[in-house]
Amino acid sequence: MSKLIMRGVSKAYGATLALRRGDLTVEAGEVHVLIGSNGSGKSTLCKVLAGSVRPDNGEILIDGKPVTISGPHAARASGIGIFYQELSLAGHRTVAENICLPDMPGGIFVDRAALENRAQRYIALFDTVSGEGFAAEAVVENLRADQRQLVEIMKALATEAPITIFDEPTSALDRAQVDRFFEILRDLKAEGRSIIFISHRMDEIFAIGDRVTVIRDGETVGTENIADTNPGAVIRLMVGGQDELAPGASAPPATAATRNGAVLTVANFSGKGFANVGFEVAKGEILGFGGLHGQGQSAVLRAIFGANPSSGGALALSGSAFVPSDPRAAIRRGLAYVSGDRSRDGVISGRPILENVTPIHYLKQKLFLARPSALAERVKPALEALHTKFAGLGHPINSLSGGNQQKIVIARWLIDRPDVLLLDDPTKGIDLSAKADLFALIRKLAAEGMGIVLYSSEDAELLNNADRILVFNGGQVRRELTGADRTRYNLYQAAYEAA
Amino acid sequence: MTTATLSTPKPGGLKRLIERYPFLPALLIALVLLGLNGLYQPRSVSFIGITGLVKTYLALIMLAIAQTYVVYAGDIDLSVGAIVSLVNVVIVVMMEKMGGTGFSVVAALGMGLLVGLACGIVNGIVVAALRLQAIVATFATSIFFTGLALYVMPVAGTPAPATFWRTYGGRFFEIPFVFYAAVLLAIVIYVLARTRLATQLLAVGDDAQAAFQSGLPVTKIRIQGYALCGLFAALAAFCITGDTASGDPLVGGKMTLFSVAAVVLGGSALSGGFGTVVGSIVGALIIGLINSLVFFVGTPSEWQNLVQGLAILVALMAGILVGRRARA
């Protein structure tokens, strides 16, 4: 009898179907790897199991008995422990307190001795690799990133749950720490515990996994024995039948012809979340940033724009040096940045459309006062170019759909043309027709000579629209895909390669 | 765990000290203020002077403690003053109705604790279970509690029975009653700091989402924080009744924001997750010492509020500067 069976689990967030049909069968005493590309639904499946997300449909059986998991507490009671990718630590508490937080020993009063004892058991497991300053009494906030990740691992181990989920537990760990962690996992396996393991490092998956389940577009597409498969086969399963829709479906790459002068040159660029990134964007080129979520793509774009700090490197705009300091300076030098996180970076919520289109115009033209009617004249061509649908410039921006809101934000940059347009996952939460409009516009802007950097978490968008693709992994550019190499298979292979 | 602490690298002894005892800057300020008090009025640092200070400000100390447990979890309670008023009039009326005997005092105090607890639970349910904004929701309940107090005793002035305030102001074996109360308070705080609830409140204040994902019953924990706050507000009401020896349906109102100021002066973060009860006590003492200093220096009455406000601002800034310097 299988330890855990999940059948037909689905979850929708509003109109977006995060998980269509998730199936998963895990045996006792195995490390079961869960793999899938960006937004395929593997994290959602785990969150359903851990009780932090309620599924819309589907059934879950543990030891053959159907269970309802109504919350994190219920999940724990059903014998499920989880390591959270985004960590769930209390920064001001000590390591020991964090490890035992879900289930502190003692009644009304905390049994300090028992707490220290229990924590010490898990701290001792990593004694040789946890590094300086790591102690039961250390305050978590003062630890390094890898040490914090170790605390989260210990916290998951301390649940002693028969089924333990590890959602990308190794992203901040060094080699020795990973090796030690894997030894511990093998011990757990020998005890008959079940481990669900999510990682995007192919070498790790093949080092620790017993079986692998592949999720694609919210659906479980297959489960294989690790011993009977190889990385190439797993990637092909992730890619599915959609492989060859890729090369330049919407437009022929104009790369070679337009390589007549770089509008943006970046060399040895480093900062928080990325290191030694270098590339050139030619006039009229669309350069794609690919790879898994959060491998440094956004961080690079934000740092170029001066919205995030950078620590080193040389940048040049059309040949003249540029030091990113803050967005105002970047805008004056002809950079534009559009983010997919509209509520944080784009939309001025609750204000009229006109006010949402004009802030960059005010800045660039050093306007102090302006007549709305004169502004409206300047604004209209930009909005028309985007096929934006709106009732009137005086209507609040919130009355528009997500796609139209994003068009307004882009139109903001087009009144006074920038030289370089940085697109940071710009189509997040936008409907299909608006996406098509957007990419048609981007191609047109490129044809008119703008240099464009496009990061998209949707691989199809990238493959269809970028002339070249830089694949990021662990904050660095791992591979450059050009011409006929721009296939889904190559993209995944580079993204899942050992960092 | 001394060995572990010693074996870790030392990033400056002062930083470590302040990290462990975040109320140290506040304690320093309190000592400076105490010195200034002594300078202008030598009698204020005598035994009798200190007794008077504790007797007068024990209520604010209690209220600051009450506020701390709520702030631990990242919440705030703007109704603590109203709870003080309500408990104050309830116990005074009850003692009076029952004839002011020793038994009536004990019964009234029990009732007072229940009222405080009930108010706290109401706040907790409104904020944590119904998910209203803590600032606005507790402001609204404060008006409600004040309304109840005015219903119980429409006009201030009913005296508390002599048994009660004579005990509060009196001495046993030559030691003032308030010192016994202070010792008892210290024990209660020491015990409370070791409860599971204290750690859970701080964990919720650190990151409520993370606490929820760790399987903590976040809503229940926040309600318990407010309940504890209500209990300590009731204790504050007992102190103020002992000090003023009468009932007043508006007596606590102006104390609310002083309790918040005391918590901040004591080094706790209003965003939650970080703080100490001892710090809040020191914070309340700082406010008390500033008030008496303003008086001892001989500030003309029309200037007293202005000087008092400036002094609190300076104390806040000094605390932040000292803390920042030490942490950097």
TrEMBL record, chain A:
It comes from the Bacteria. One of its GO terms (molecular function) is ATP binding. It holds the Pfam family ABC_tran. Residues 4-242, 258-499 form the ABC transporter domain. PROSITE patterns: ABC_TRANSPORTER_1, ABC_TRANSPORTER_2. Keywords: ATP-binding, Nucleotide-binding, Repeat, Sugar transport, Transport. SMART domains: AAA (SM00382). Gene3D superfamilies: P-loop containing nucleotide triphosphate hydrolases. Belongs to the ABC transporter superfamily. PANTHER family: CARBOHYDRATE TRANSPORT ATP-BINDING PROTEIN MG119-RELATED, GALACTOFURANOSE TRANSPORTER ATP-BINDING PROTEIN YTFR. This is Sugar ABC transporter ATP-binding protein. It comes from Aminobacter carboxidus.
Automatic annotation (TrEMBL), chain B:
It comes from the Bacteria. It is a multi-pass membrane protein. InterPro entries: ABC_transp_permease (IPR001851). Pfam families: BPD_transp_2. The chain crosses the membrane at residues 21-40, 46-66, 78-95, 101-122, 134-153, 173-193, 225-245, 251-270, 277-297, 303-323. It is found in: Cell membrane. The complex is composed of two ATP-binding proteins (LsrA), two transmembrane proteins (LsrC and LsrD) and a solute-binding protein (LsrB). Part of the ABC transporter complex LsrABCD involved in autoinducer 2 (AI-2) import. Probably responsible for the translocation of the substrate across the membrane. This is Autoinducer 2 import system permease protein LsrC.
